[in-house]
């Protein structure tokens, strides 16, 4: 009998579980997502409990509706949930950054707060990450949404934007804007920070010599609340940001670093004897 599923864990996961050390932090930025908080946390718990030593970090980006009350109620129900609150609305990338900086986990998974990403897809991203072996700390696993359930205008604008981004940045990622991602906390903290950077993380990882992989994930209808993005504002900031990312790519340098360790004379003498 193995009710906790310990026999299925790799040694790193097993040690994390035994030491009660957080291995995975799920960061969820949200703004005015009243009605989505508790259902999303329930889904995270169902997807990860018993499989990972995890924490969830919900970042309230200056919400003005009932999101704060929902977060208080969710914290009372789920001890794995931590809540951060921005004093002013600062954007999705700022929310992710606040969550990652506060995270205790070695690995970070991110989700959008509107429940259109499915937490049940996180284990598939984790499996792909583990396949990378020693390269995992320098790897970004990016979700690739299948059968997007958005309005026609949003799907069209996203398709055009992805096409332009792919041609200019050459990041070989079909859906870089997907909110469902998995990566090492240290990888994120090495990246240059700017507003809207979450949409360009594959290009930023590759710029520093890392690698990216895409995994097909589900996409769901928004059942509660309203989208915070419009077609025109996304198009404009996208044009500006792509120019900025191209500049960052042009200034990249990946030297590769080897540490040279010289043996002491005493050590040489001992080996010779």
Tell me what you see in this structure.
It is a single chain. α6 packs parallel to α9 (231-250). This protein is globular. 40% of the residues lie in helices and 16% in strands. The chain has a 7-stranded mixed sheet with strand order 3-2-1-4-6-5-7, sandwiched between helices. α2 links the parallel β1 (24-30) and β2. The protein has helices at residues 11-18, 37-48, 67-77, 92-102, 122-130, 152-169, 185-189, 201-207, 231-250, 265-272; strands at 24-30, 54-61, 81-86, 107-110, 139-145, 181-184, 211-217. The chain has a single domain, classed as Spore Coat Polysaccharide Biosynthesis Protein SpsA, Chain A (Alpha-Beta Complex), CATH 3.90.550.10. By secondary structure, the protein is α/β, with parallel strands linked by helices. The protein starts with 10 loop residues before the first helix and ends with a helix. It is built from 10 helices and 7 strands.
Structural class: alpha/beta
The CATH C-level name is: Alpha Beta
CATH topology: Spore Coat Polysaccharide Biosynthesis Protein SpsA, Chain A
Total of helices: 10
Strand order of the largest sheet: 3-2-1-4-6-5-7
Spatial shape: globular
Q: Which CATH-level-2 architecture?
A: Alpha-Beta Complex
Radius of gyration: 21 Å
Number of strands: 7
Q: Could you state the order of secondary-structure elements as H and E?
A: HEHEHEHEHEHEHHEHH
* Residue windows where pLDDT falls under 50 for at least 5 positions: none
Tell me roughly what share of residues is in helical segments: 25-40%
């Amino acid at each position: 009998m193995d009710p906790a599923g310990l026999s299925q864990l790799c040694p790193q996961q097993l040690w994390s579980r035994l030491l009660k050390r957080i291995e995975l932090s799920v960061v969820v930025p949200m703004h005015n997502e009243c009605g989505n908080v508790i259902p999303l946390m329930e889904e995270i718990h169902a997807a990860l409990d018993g499989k990972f030593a995890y924490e969830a970090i919900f970042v309230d980006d200056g919400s003005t509706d009932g999101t704060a009350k929902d977060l208080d109620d969710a914290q009372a129900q789920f001890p794995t949930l931590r809540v951060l609150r921005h004093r002013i609305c600062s954007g999705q990338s700022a929310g992710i950054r606040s969550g990652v900086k506060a995270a205790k986990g070695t690995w970070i998974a991110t989700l959008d707060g509107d429940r259109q990403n499915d937490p049940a897809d996180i284990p598939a991203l984790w499996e792909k990450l583990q396949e990378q072996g020693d390269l995992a700390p320098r790897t970004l696993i990016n979700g690739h949404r299948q059968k997007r359930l958005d309005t026609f205008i949003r799907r069209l604008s996203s398709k055009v934007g992805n096409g332009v981004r792919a041609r200019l940045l050459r990041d070989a990622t079909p859906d870089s804007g997907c909110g469902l991602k998995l990566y090492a906390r240290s990888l994120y903290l090495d990246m240059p920070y700017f507003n809207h950077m979450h949409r360009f993380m594959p290009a930023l990882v590759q710029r520093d010599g890392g690698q990216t992989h895409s995994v097909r994930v589900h996409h769901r209808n928004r059942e509660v609340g309203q989208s915070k993005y419009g077609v025109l504002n996304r198009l404009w900031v996208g044009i500006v940001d792509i120019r900025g990312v191209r500049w960052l790519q042009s200034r990249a340098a990946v030297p590769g670093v080897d540490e040279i360790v010289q043996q002491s004379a005493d050590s040489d003498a001992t080996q010779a004897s």
